[in-house]
Amino acid sequence: MRQITTGIAALALGLSGIGAAQADDIRKGQELHSDNCISCHADMMGGDGSGLYTRDNRMVGSHDQLVSQVNMCNTQLGTNWFDDEVAAVVEYLNAEYYNF
């Protein structure tokens, strides 16, 4: 229980350090990612698919590469995301896994 409480407190502190608009983008990006990306990534990597982002030989090494990768997936999946939705997914992935 203590570990969960500590994690929630850390998340709250982390989100308080960013603007409300950025926090909204991250939440929107997380939702879009959950609805559209996880199933494919889980098929590729197993588990919840997050291994795609954390593997030693990951393909994304910069913010620009992350934007390109999200755009490529958007095109391949035919999600037809608008630019702000692509940006939200990029914000989420960057905050969760990359920290560029």
Your description of this structure?
75% of the residues lie in helices and 0% in strands. The protein contains 6 helices and no strands. It is an all-alpha fold and 100 residues long. The relative contact order is 0.15. It has one domain.
Q: What is the helix fraction of residues, given as a range? A: over 70%
Task: Name the shape in a single word.
Answer: globular
Instruction: Identify low-pLDDT runs.
Output: 1-10
Order of helices and strands: HHHHHH
- Mean pLDDT comes to 86
- Kindly give the count of domains: 1
**Rg result:** 14 Å
Strand content: under 5%
Task: Specify the number of helices.
Answer: 6
The strand count comes to: 0
| Major beta sheet summary | none
Structural class: mainly alpha
Terminus-to-terminus distance: 32 Å
List keywords for this structure.
single chain; 100 residues; mainly alpha; 6 helices; disordered N terminus
Task: Produce the secondary structure layout.
Elements: H1 2-16, H2 20-36, H3 38-45, H4 51-54, H5 63-77, H6 83-98
Q: Care to give the gist of this entry?
A:
The chain is mainly α. The chain contains 6 helices and no strands. The chain has one domain (19-98).
